[in-house]
Input
Amino acid sequence: SEKCLLRHFSSVGFWGLVNNAGISTFGETGWLSMEKYEKFADVNLLGSIRTTLAFLPLLRKYKGRIVFMSSIVAYFSLGNGIYSMTKAAIEKFCDALRLEMKKFGVRVCIIQPGNYARSTKIQPPVSAEEIWNELSEEEKAVYNKEYVQERANFFNSILSKGSTNGNEVVDAMVDALMSPTPKARYMVAKLTEKALVFACALFPTVVMDSVLSYALSK
Output
């Protein structure tokens, strides 16, 4: 239990917390139920907040480290807006926490992986048939099976290009925990992915909307 863990670590010390729990899925906004949105918020966002609040007294006491797993899709979305939403929220939570914890000597770090789909099981390939069967009648009246298949193929093509070098993300997590001067953010991604994030920050929203809409139409 939480109280048992807190009692144990109070005596032996507690210097590092890694919030790594996460789930992912694919689907346009109207394709997903409210229950699914609530589940994703509960796991990807509120789960990390709950764990952080539980161990915050010990982390302040021992001047520890808190590491959060975010993603580059906190900056943009290409078919998994529900996942992007939770990661963007984690980023803002961390920004506030990092400033607040500075006076206690607690360091807060964010890991921002690129596409490592082939290194983890967080997002398996999606099935257009399963997506179609889960759509409401209202959504089926708007979309057709061909469109859903196109979207599924597009998303699966992205997944198939994911890096298999998951150790790169682990190395960033270790550095965040052990380095005497950890970074606030560790972007662990390909050069093209970093360029896309940079473009999202640099160019007006209307420009990036056009670029991402073009990518989605391919």
Remarks:
- The chain has a mean pLDDT of 91.
- The two ends are 50 Å apart (CA to CA).
- Strands lie at 16-19, 65-69, 107-113, 185-188.
